[in-house]
Amino acid sequence: MLAYYSFDIKGMFRNYSKYTLTDNEHRILKTAYEQGYFEWPKNANAEEISKSLNISKVTFIQELRRALRKLVLKELDFDNVDFMGFY
Asked: What is the pTM of this model?
């Protein structure tokens, strides 16, 4: 007996959005939080965190800004956003 399954491609990506962080953005954001980057005063600066991640300071700052931008836009519920520019 053959079994047929309906496949809903849209449903598969229902929880995915343009605001979803990449694995790298998530890792950088999590590390920044865990090391106290968002504390006042900061427990770690961008240079210290980038060294712990074995990436450049510029890369850390760019990836962190992308992640924060996505979270802010999601929270503010913007739907017409062009992520090609990232900033």
From this structure: 0.69
Extract the tokens encoding 11.
């449903």
State how far the Cα of 64 lies from the Cα of 56, in Å rounded to an integer.
12
How is the chain classified by DSSP, letter by letter? --------HHHHTTT--TTPPPHHHHHHHHHHHHTTTTSSS-SS-HHHHHHHHTS-HHHHHHHHHHHHHHHHHHHHT--S--TTS--
Give the separation between CA 19 and CA 73, rounded to whole angstroms.
7
Q: What are phi and psi of 8, to 5 degrees?
A: -105, 95
Query: Residue holding tokens 């980057």?
Result: 37
Whether residue 41 is preceded by a cis peptide bond, meaning omega within 30 degrees of 0, is: yes
Please give the span between the terminal C-alpha atoms of the chain, in angstroms, as a whole number.
55
Tell me the pLDDT tens digit for each residue of 59-69. Answer: 999 999 999 99
